[in-house]
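Q: Give me the 3D complex with adenosine-5'-diphosphate.
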Amino acid sequence: MGETGCGKSVTAHSVMGLIPVPPGRIVGGTVTFGKHGNLLDLKEEEMQKLRGKEMSMIFQDPMSSLNPVFTAGFQVEEAIVTHDRHISKKDLLSRVVGLFKKVNISDPEKSVHSYPHMLSGGMKQRVMIAMGLSCGPKLIIADEPTTALDVSIQAQILTLLKKLQKEEGSSVLLISHDLGVIAAMAKNVAVMYAGSIVEYAPVSDLFQQPMHPYTKGLLGAIPRLDRDIERLAVIPGTLPNLFDLPEGCKFRERCSEALEICASVRPRLIEIEPGHEVACHACARDR
Ligand SMILES: Nc1ncnc2c1ncn2[C@@H]1O[C@H](COP(=O)(O)OP(=O)(O)O)[C@@H](O)[C@H]1O
Ligand SMILES: [Mg+2]
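A: Here is the predicted complex, encoded as structure tokens.
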């Protein structure tokens, strides 16, 4: 989770090997995925075999992620054929209809022949989810799958994702800027700020006992039903320019708890309590 522009999508694209090079460049770190080891060491052909089949991504905007000149069914078929070249036409169609049923698309036999403009936003997102599921991946990255949808449709899509995750046994990496969505969906949460993870914790720990000043600020900025608060807290200042990051802690300028060391040394994630990691000098000192 993290506010718009903090680098959530870029991080997800890096995991999938979808950063356009140039100008994109992965300059450090590792992406470890099951038995495949560090994905950054794989060749593009090897990554192609993983994408779709082992890991898939549901993109942020279903309106622009589907190709308007092909039917919804064809676009899901394409994803399947990429990994299963010998599947018969009949099997292919029945597999797509089955997937459309699974994601609760109304009238699946007919909808496979519909073009994207004939489907509502919620149905388009279901097509994207069907595409993501089509090869039974172990990891599904859902990048703000509900941000472009109405609130009532949002709830349906999230319920669907949760149900599919249980049924299929896939892991879901859900990207969101919506704290309500995160509280309802996540088991573990990584909070991002200006391109890095600043806090990582089980969801209940994070909401009950946030440690990083940024996370505290985020949680303080939303209204709560269980407490009387006169004014909501505001995080002063704005995000730093990602192309010209300050030395030391990237949150320092906006932080009320900043120490001297924060100006020069970038804090690293450290486990402060079991399972609860924070990148903050002040939090580390207080323990
Ligand atoms: N790790 C990074 N290194 C360099 N630039 C980054 C990084 N992460 C994000 N950016 C820049 O910030 C922009 C917004 O990032 P994005 O991932 O789209 O944000 P979000 O999905 O959180 O709204 C990107 O287009 C890129 O220019
Ligand atoms: Mg994004």
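A quick observation: The first strand starts at residue 55 and ends at 58.
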